[in-house]
## 1
Amino acid sequence: MPNIKLKDISTRAPKDFDKQETKDKLQKILLELDDLQNLLYAESKHSLLVVIQGMDASGKDGAVRNVLGKLNPQGVLVKSFKAPTAEELSHDFLWRIHSHAPAKGMIQIFNRSHYEDILITRVHKWCDDKTAKKRMQSINDFEKLLTEHNNTSILKFYLHISPEEQQQRLNERIKDPTKQWKYNENDLAEAKLWDDYMNMYEDCFENCNDIPWTITPSDQNWYKEYVIASAIKDTLKGFNMQFPGLKK
């Protein structure tokens, strides 16, 4: 994904996508996902890692809840990587990540991920460019390790919203009582660094693309969820799974 410019990519669904028709298709996909996840868990030969990245208010939590929230919790795990603890900082940056890689039979979601260590850390100058480039290579090696040695497939989604949509959603967190619990005054400060974040994401897409990213238009939640659910369904179907027979 070389030289990608996020400003040139629409944050909205293609014009030929009808909202209600797409939402109806999504419901059918979610029913199919339920069956596929059950089969994945029963066969226990494959695993799936779903990486979800995006700016504040891009809809990461909603994507997790609405696409994967109704699946059997025995077979789906979610991990949100926040600021590292003192213990985590005393190890290499992937130390806290690796233990949450999915076991065979599992779907693991990273709501924010190891990519934060080459995104927010660079925007705030906690990590210099030389260190970031080394980390990018380590990330590529880490993902290769999972795919080659644990039969793990990895899907990576960047939830692509416009700065205008972000501002609207952040304002809703202030005004809407049902969303005020999400409000973090630091989000508004981070939003002012939009251009810096876009530059770091674009560099990430160029250098950490051995496993490709899906740039997911996310101004409309119904389309975002359809894209993510469709990709997960297609990946699971591609495993050509079968229920195991009676144990001998």
## 2
Amino acid sequence: MPSHSKRSLSGLKRAALMIAIVLILASAEAAYAGAIKIGVSLRMKTDTGERYGQMVADEFNAINAAGGINGHTIDVKLLNDECKSDIGVANATKYAYQDKVHLFVGSTCSSVSLPIVDVIHKAGVPMLIPHSTNYKITLKGSPWVFRVPISSRFSAAAAKYAAENIGTKIAYIWASDAASQADAQKFYEYIETYHGEKPLYAEQFQEGELDLRPHLLKIKALKPQALMISAQSQDFARGLVQSYEVGIAPSVKRIGGSAASNRPAPILSGEAIKGVFFHAAFSYADPRPEVQAFVKMTTERYGVSTPDHDFSQAWDLTQIAKIALERAELTLTDETLEADRAAIRDALATVRGYQTLGGGVVDFCADPTPECRDGNKTPVLIEYTKSGEGYQLRVIGSTTFDANFGLEGLQEEAAKLRQSLNN
């Protein structure tokens, strides 16, 4: 064969190869453009926190394995915000503007979710919250925000039970994170409003503070009927143990905030956890078949003996997201990013009657108000009966609140939050 023919053939092969590469790249780009992009930012400083994040990613990937959403796959990204607001804001900013996600999921800590609301509001990204409970998050009034967990304004469930079954002379200490502060505040406000009893003692301490005994010694001298310690797991456990070390009698009922239900609490607290009661959104002790199937799944897949409400709420969130994504009409190109985000937001607002693993029902609606965006209004009341890795609980009741409960007198605060959101 003449050399020029060989050169021509070689050129044809190169051209064919280039065409093939272009087609492959175009196909990959089209596939990526047609994906529903979800950015997740959670507190994953511990093994348990990593498992929460992994379960969210696993559930979204399971949707892909089952055929995706209306022919679209889900591209889920996972970042650790360490319960630090600056990292959370950076994660949300990256997701919104660089990764151009269609849905943001986060965060664990209310102190992180609060400033993230401002980021996603300005970017116009729907935000689905798995764990953060501070009432101010939805009081800001962003139309992009939806909360799966129970708002701290419904923490009066525990206060109501305490007033009716334990007493109203209660001492409070709480950590400086927003969720713990809100849990304690809503608790003692309920006692004062409905029973006329001011806090016997009420003081804040810094997250990670090692010695809470100065507070606890003062509380001991006041002889309370109950002691509420509202803090994340490590701080809660430390305060609980030290309350016995300073000699506060076992007859003084110990009460936890919502974070007392997190799995590390009974492991870190040891025998001090027995008898502690708290409100939560879920109990593994619920005998319903769907709950026991979930317990079996998390036990086998993630190596936990008893999943807490952060596990259940993360799972509920993925199911709610699936419902909304199936309802949304999505095009999923760069040009339709804004419209696709709005379609997901509007579809989330239609989710009503979703039965959570905790027993409550999530009802969302279109108005950007706490009444519409605090989906679950049914706290469960739970007490620890055994400590350690194999801790045990018993359900002692549940309470469903009206959608506007706890919003009395917050009009001025709501107006300031809405103004700051739009500045």
